[in-house]
Input
Amino acid sequence: MDLWQEMGLEGRRALIVHHDDLGITHAQTQAYLDLGYPTGSLLASSTWAPALAGHEGGDLGVHLTLTSEWNAPRIRPLTGGASLRDAHGFFWRTLEEVWRHAETAEVEAELRAQVEAIYALGIDVTHIDTHMGAVMRPDVAEVYVRLAAEYLLPIMLPARLEYHSLPEAFREPLRRLLDASPLPRVGMLMGYDGPAETMRDWYVETLRGLGPGVYHLIHHAALPTPEGRMLPDWERRAADVDALQDPEVRGLIGECVPLTYREVRDALRAHLRKG
Amino acid sequence: MDLWQEMGLEGRRALIVHHDDLGITHAQTQAYLDLGYPTGSLLASSTWAPALAGHEGGDLGVHLTLTSEWNAPRIRPLTGGASLRDAHGFFWRTLEEVWRHAETAEVEAELRAQVEAIYALGIDVTHIDTHMGAVMRPDVAEVYVRLAAEYLLPIMLPARLEYHSLPEAFREPLRRLLDASPLPRVGMLMGYDGPAETMRDWYVETLRGLGPGVYHLIHHAALPTPEGRMLPDWERRAADVDALQDPEVRGLIGECVPLTYREVRDALRAHLRKG
Output
């Protein structure tokens, strides 16, 4: 299917501004509320996710998680799988550890529990995506695609695998899996890998240079409060807050067709009903 | 046994300054580090507990938890017991719900997992206490006393049940259980039930009026940061921070014998070795 065509987006520049990592700290949920962009995804085993559960106009998804990468705060799996956790009982710190240890069946139970947990908060889930790309191990990516089909939800699927730094052995099976999927794919935009000082410039240049397409712009906004500053990458998260409040950046975002995952989800469901 | 006598505390005023509820927010762990009093207890299913795991000079215990009382942050059981959680998957909000729903076997598995989880952080656990007194249902109190015996740890046992507002039906079996326990009991001091404005005065008056005994002074210090202010009772938590930095209060605390649970634990273990 070409959902983007059905949605009338062909030849246009459609933009989903996506808030990653929501729920781990108050600095993130407050940045979400302050910025006013509706779309983001929540970590199910975080403690602050309930703060956004009742939020009017939210376009919120499930940020499937298999890592807990900071010294603190740290989070745990919702399920009991021993292969999902380190010696301290938390998710593994690194993708390498997840990909080495995690057993497919335990991962599947965990990811399913995460989706259920976000629904259980009373949230009308609009999409699923992935924390640090941990679902990109090919057998886990199969689970990711299957969850999309079961829950009738769009998942974040990058148009090009080059967005992720993946082990060479993952690339070919992943490519086959994604090419076989009927789900729509997005152009991924993310300034996170650059320094905080040039974040605003990255937004301006990226948005100015954008050709037609459907884009998923990832940001990690968190306020630079005492709590927010405990995150090792807080400067880049604070730079996202500043950039997304910058008049020129907001103007450039305003020149794109604003897109939500709710619209994508509803179009996807309408398409599937038509058969 | 009279451990206090063996420890040479008879006739003296010994004081454990105890930081409750550690780990749920950064505002609490930072207040702990700022204040410099060593003793407190951590919620095992919180996200910030690892921030104190490597803290030198910590006198840290397990804050056994069966409730998650705020709108956010909220926390979940570590174990799967269905009787421990509400419709959203978190611990029950109120003691009444816990006491109505929680099944003894599921509670026991959960409390044991909480103790193990704090050890798994690499913390040399010095004691066990209870969040909101949830363990005071008599069958759960038996588990609490049993954990103390198994782990050779002191647990917080109040000298008088009047400190807790308990259902009438709990009082007689609880009294029998506690009277039968060989574990030492403490005088509980807590200014939390009063208003924030008079917190400092409460400390001064309470400490001035203290007769001989071993006291467990509960405080809930949390910094009034944007995150800390999300807690509905943040003003009383901030008042604890202020009071515990007040020169007169610190002077009065300094007039007591400073006691840690590490000393109590080690004396208890030495006593048990002697048989």
